[in-house]
Amino acid sequence: MAVIVFAESWEGKFKKITNEAVSYAHGLAEAEGTNVIAVAVGALESDPAELGKYGASEVVTVEGDAFASFNASVWATAIAEVAEAKGAKHIVLSGTNNGKMIGPMLSVKAGASYISNAIDIPSNFAPFTVRRNAFSNKGLVDYQTNAEKVVVSIVPNALGVKETGGSASVSSHSSSAAADSRVNVIDVDRVKGKIPLPEADLVVSAGRGMKAPENWTMIEELADVLGAGTACSKPVSDIGWRPHSEHVGQTGIQINPSLYIAVGISGAIQHLAGVSGSKTIVVINNDPEAPFFKAADYGIVGDAFEVVPKLTEALKSFKANQ
Amino acid sequence: MKILVCISHVPDTTSKINFVNDNTEFDTNGVQFIINPYDEFGLTKAIQLKEANGGTVTAINVGDATTEPTLRKALAIGADDAIRVNANPTDAYFVAEQLAAVAKDGGYDLIICGQESIDYNGGQVGGMLAALLDLPFASPCVGLDIDGSTATVLREIDGGKEKSTMSLPIVLGGKKGLVEEKDLRIPNMRGIMTARTKPLATVEAVSADARTTAVKFEKPAAKAAVKLVDSAEELVQLLHNEAKAI
User: Fold this and answer.
1) Res A194 pLDDT > 90
2) Structural domain for B52, as ranges
3) Predicted ipTM?
4) From A15, A296, B64, B165, which residue has the greatest number of CB atoms within 10 Å?
5) Confidence (pTM)
């Protein structure tokens, strides 16, 4: 019966969070006494067999003209075909922007129920029950379904990667899905050399407390030392100090890194809705009354222009001694 | 051009979230309900498109009579008419089936949903609706131009943006960027007055089964008080030894 997992790639290489999705699928497969089959759609440069390391026993590649650019409906059809052929009861994908488009379409095409944004392993398999976020991170909900087939998407970075050290066989599937002439991707503009924010495990973010856009150099230096992504609060992107693509919060991007460092951000409820899934939150602010301190694990009350360079130096010496 | 804007009726962003009946239900007591913020961007975009190209904007919601004030607000903002599918919106699949039933024969060129609702955050309805209607889908959509029967759609991808052209009709999941926040329409007195006389149709639900059930709610564990530290070195040690974050 197998657990199917969508092995998402970018420019032919598996995304880092694909390893997390495969690990999650492996957990499901173990509990159900079955195996994991990963489905990689589109041209691939990565060695498909590398997913064996995270628990896939088989990787099915789906290539061809119909998959030359992203189309959620066409990709969902191909994944549904493999799931059908393998008799899968569970299909796992990561809640990336592409995953969020594929998931609901796939559930309809596969005749499956869909639980999105899972943040834990299922607490029960009959009926399938899993916990997810809701109310913009102000609540948790256990969702249940009696459906025979379930599509489940997981919140990126919520569950982590587990190496199991197995090996995977590789096969290909010839999909009947045809290219969709109604949709033409004409341009893809992706920031090169930077970690996409939803995938970043560590994020350094700053707000109006930085006073001017040129002061972001120190935020970028701190992020560089950590190997972190950079983000900003809404007012900062509204003024145009930073691009909208860095705005995290309810109307921006929602992230769930393991560490979120917020510099000069007061912590409005809309900002918290986008970042409170972070495992550890550090707040640096000169206002001890800033509401963000209530949501933080660690805080430094102080002037960002003094604290941030000191933190960068402290991290450099910490890294040098590792 | 006929545009359908799907409106979720959600608790105000700043609402306190509580659960009742042994944590099996969301407590609506004292909660102010609003148009889902992501849907508001779509509604304003629809009105702008109508003003530029002509046509109609229909707002639709699946809900009981208590959601009518939210639909009236959509009318006050500028929708021409509204439809309420008279049903308890039990899950995303049920809602998508209801919307699909209305949209199927409606001849809509463009159907706009929010990328997700701010209550259950599922992000499911738009994609399910597109699949049920076999229409192209883009989400989260942060830019839209219409030229004749072609839409140029900008959507967020992880770490960037993707631009596509799509033949109408299409389904979009929208967010800020469809219009900017400063351009969001706020109902004025004239809008509120005319909204009272605009048509708000009630249709009965089609038969569809919910596929999922929310069985138990919980609030996240209260955070321990913030640990304030004095020095960067101390913070680094805590992040390494205690939080295991670096």
Assistant:
1) no
2) 2-217
3) 0.96
4) A296
5) 0.95
Architecture of domain A197-321: 3-Layer(aba) Sandwich (3.40)
Whether A266 has a binding-site annotation, put simply, is yes
CATH 2.40.50.100 fits A2-179, yes or no: no
Indicate the number of domains in chain B. 1
Whether the domain at A2-179 and the domain at A197-321 fall into the same CATH topology: yes
Q: pLDDT tens digits for A90-149?
A: 999 999 999 999 999 999 999 999 999 999 999 999 999 999 999 998 999 999 999 999
Query: Is A182 marked as a binding-site residue?
Result: no
Tell me, yes or no, whether B142 lies in a domain: yes
User: Is A193 a residue whose pLDDT tops 80?
Assistant: no
CATH of the domain at B33: 3.40.50.620
In a domain, B235, yes or no: no
Which residue of A lies nearest to B162 if distances are taken between CA atoms?
Answer: A188
Pick from B27, B153, B212 the residue to mutate for testing the A interface (most A CBs within 10 Å): B212
Contact A182 B166 (CB under 8 A): yes
Does the annotation place A270 within a ligand binding site? yes
What's the pLDDT tens digit per position in B10-65? 999 989 999 999 999 999 999 999 999 999 999 999 999 999 999 999 999 999 99
Q: Does the residue B40 lie in any domain? A: yes
In a domain, B26, yes or no: yes
Q: Helix A97-110 to helix B92-104 angle, to the nearest 10 degrees?
A: 80
What residues in A contact B157, CB-CB < 8 Å?
A: 70, 97-98, 188, 190
